[in-house]
Amino acid sequence: MLVGLLIAGIVSEGAFQSMGNTISRPPQIVELVIPAGTSEKVSNGQSVVADGMIFMVGDTLELINQDSIAHTFGPLFVPPGSSARLSLDTPESLAFSCSFEPSQYFGLDVREALSPGTRIKGILLAGIPMGLLLSVYSVIAWPFKEQKKIPPTPK
45: domain range? Predict the structure, then answer.
């Protein structure tokens, strides 16, 4: 059982560390700039802003419109040269209509920050079954292990 927990802990924490601190950071203000010339690029079918952004619960999305025309983003209306903010307070996947993307939609994910308790729960949920499987395997495989034959002693 302990071997399973150890393996699960190493794999889980290794994956967590490789992702950096992006899944357990405190809430912050994330700026999304709509650059000048966006309306022309969108009319030509060019994407200006990366789709599929990931946010943490408590983040605030600030749209900064540097374009010459007003843009919309879900409930926000952003006139030229101004900005608007959207608080992201619940974990969910959102798809907003927006005027600064050729597809006329923009998707984003709002996720809960990963707590130490969640990390421990993940290790336990992976480690206990792994430990049980290793235990069952060792009980089944043990009888098949080749025994060392002791040569008969000469008389």
Answer: 25-111
**Percentage of residues of the chain with pLDDT beyond 90:** 39
Q: How far apart are CA 101 and CA 50, in angstroms?
A: 9
Torsion sign, CA atoms 51, 53, 58, 60: negative
Asked if 4 and 37 sit in the same domain, the reply is no
Q: Do 64 and 124 reside in the same domain of the chain?
A: no
Task: Tell me the three state secondary structure of residue 111.
Answer: strand
Whole-angstrom Cα distance, residue 73 to residue 33? 12
> What does the pLDDT look like over 4-38, one tens digit per residue?
777 777 877 777 666 655 566 789 999 999 999 99
Phi, psi dihedral angles at 103 (to 5 degrees): -75, -10
- Of 123, 140, 142, the residue nearest 4 (C-alpha): 123
Nearest to 32, CA basis, from 92, 110, 108: 108
pLDDT tens, residue by residue, 57-79 = 999 999 999 999 999 999 999 99
Residue 28 CB neighbour total at 10 angstroms: 11
Distance CA 20, CA 34 (A): 27
